[in-house]
Structure formats: structure tokens, C-alpha cells
Amino acid sequence: MAVGDDASAAGYPLVPDTGAGGEVKYGAREINRSRDMIAQLKSLITTRKFTDSTVVPAAAVGVNGDVHFRTI
Q1: 10 Å Cβ neighbour count for 32?
Q2: Domain positions in the chain
Q3: Which of 56, 58, 49, 50 is nearest to 71 (CA)?
Q4: What is the pLDDT of residues 33-59, one digit of tens each?
């Protein structure tokens, strides 16, 4: 995979290698690699949902890792 693909897919802006704004030349490649690493880490972190109510939710509600507190 090319440098910057993961970052671009995650919606992060890339630093240009050439033209106006590309004055950092090879530094841009390292910045984009860093953004790739952040995008890869972000994809590993999932969002967990915490809910509470007085009834037990149906099995179809939520995903593995979600937490539900039942008030008695």
C-alpha cells in the first residue's frame, strides 16, 4: 500500500510532496506515514455503547462488547 493511503481513507489530509506547500519534500512522506499509523490505530479502536433501563434488551440489540445496566 502506498504512503498516505490509510490516512486518506480515514479522511486525514495529506501533505503534498511537490508544488506550493510541498516545501518539506521528504518530510512530507514521513508526516504522511505518521498519519497512516494514526489511521490504522483509529481503525482498531471500536466504539462501545453503554445503555441502561429496567428491562432486559432483546438479543438483537447491540453488538459484542456493548454494556447494558439493568435497574431493578
Answers
A1: 22
A2: 5-44
A3: 56
A4: 888 888 888 877 766 778 888 888 887
Q: Under DSSP, is residue 52 helix (H, G, I), strand (E, B) or coil?
A: strand
Amino acid at 59: A
pTM greater than the 0.85 cutoff = no
How many C-alpha atoms does 25 have within 13 Å on its Cβ side?
Answer: 0
| Pairwise CA distance, residues 66 & 50, whole Å | 6
Q: Is the distance from CB of 11 to CB of 35 less than 8 angstroms?
A: no
Nearest CA to 62 out of 50, 71, 46, 44 is that of 50
Q: Which of the 8 DSSP states describes residue 23?
A: T
For the chain, list the strands marked E by DSSP: 50-53, 67-70
Q: Which of 42, 41, 39 is nearest to 12 (CA)?
A: 39
